[in-house]
Amino acid sequence: MAEGLIPIGRFSRMSRLSIKALRFYDDQGLLAPAWVDPASGYRYYRRGQAARAEAIRVLRAVDMPVGEIRDLLADDDQELIGKRLSAHRERLRARLAEQERMLRFLERLIDRGGDLMSDEVTVKMVAPVTVASLTVRAGLVTIGEAVRQGFGTIIGSIGTAGASPAGAPFLIYHDVLEEGAEGDVEICIPVTGGMAGSREVPGGTVASIVHRGPYAEIAPAYHVVTGWIEENGSTPSGPPREIYLNDPQSVTPDELLTEVQFPIEGDR
């Protein structure tokens, strides 16, 4: 064993990283030990590696993904490093703004006894619609990015096929998205013409309500509609849909309009 090497236990205390974390960062290619005993597999580090360990610890403390940390630490271009840090800073600011908005929403929900919906549930007939669609597997954390990418992919396919969008885009939730569980979400854009690969979403009777406000605050709309269905003895006949009635690029989050539809059996 070379001189000046520090056992993993001592290096853990120096770096304020647990032994488990050090092993993980080694596996991820972030912080390899200076030497590994071939007989015991025990890891040893050099004192000079403490600075890299501290950088990793701080970056993980501000929720930078491991892959991005790997790229940042591998880069010698200070300008590019600065850009990477600025991009992550903006993500943190956006996340903080979203969390603050959710806290304000929670306060209003508590103040109003859990009822934020001023509009009544309406029952109506909707016509079948031909859509270009893409089904993605996503969870509560990943749904936003999956939908953004999915809509981009579909728009590209529509353009390539020479078709045109013909209505408000919407999602069909084939599964319930729960904490720690993923489900299938179908991203749909109505189209004109006989676009290859398109499909028809069936029409029928729906129970509907329009939510006004940020997408992240839409949960009460679902509660109201499902409560109405139960109270009125109706039966859901298909997965719920979220129809986006205006463009998030042209209105503020508080002005967003989203229609929540639950297909139900029969006419009312």
Explain this structure:
With 268 residues, the chain is α+β, with helices and mostly antiparallel strands. The protein has 3 domains: 5-74, Multidrug-efflux Transporter Regulator, Chain: A, Domain 2; 80-113; 122-263, Regulatory factor, effector binding domain (Multidrug-efflux Transporter 1 Regulator Bmrr, Chain A). It contains 7 helices and 11 strands. The strands form 2 sheets. The chain has an 8-stranded antiparallel sheet with strand order 4-9-11-10-6-7-5-8, with helices on one face. The protein has a 3-stranded antiparallel sheet with strand order 1-3-2. A hairpin with a 6-residue loop joins strand 2 and strand 3 (43-46). The protein is elongated, with a radius of gyration of 26 Å. The mean pLDDT is 87.
Q: What is the mean predicted local confidence, pLDDT? A: 87
Based on DSSP secondary structure assignment, what is the total number of beta strands?
Answer: 11
Low-confidence segments:
none
**Structural class of the helix and strand makeup?**
alpha+beta
Summed up, the helix count is: 7
| Proportion in helices | 25-40%
CATH superfamily of the largest domain: Regulatory factor, effector binding domain
Strands of the largest sheet, in order across it?
A: 4-9-11-10-6-7-5-8
- CATH hierarchy class name of the largest domain: Alpha Beta
Task: Note the main sheet.
Answer: 8 strands, antiparallel
Identify the overall geometry.
elongated
At CATH's second level, what is the architecture of the largest domain?
Answer: Alpha-Beta Barrel
Strand content: 15-25%
Computed Rg:
26 Å
Q: Return the domain count.
A: 3
Give the H and E element order: EHHEEHHHEEHEEEEHEE
Write down the oligomeric state: single chain
Gap between N and C termini? 81 Å
What is the fold named in CATH at topology level of the largest domain? Multidrug-efflux Transporter 1 Regulator Bmrr, Chain A
Keywords: DNA-binding
Protein name: MerR family transcriptional regulator
InterPro entries: AraC_E-bd, DNA-bd_dom_put_sf, GyrI-like, MerR-type_HTH_dom, MerR_fam, Reg_factor_effector_dom_sf
Domain HTH merR-type: 5-75
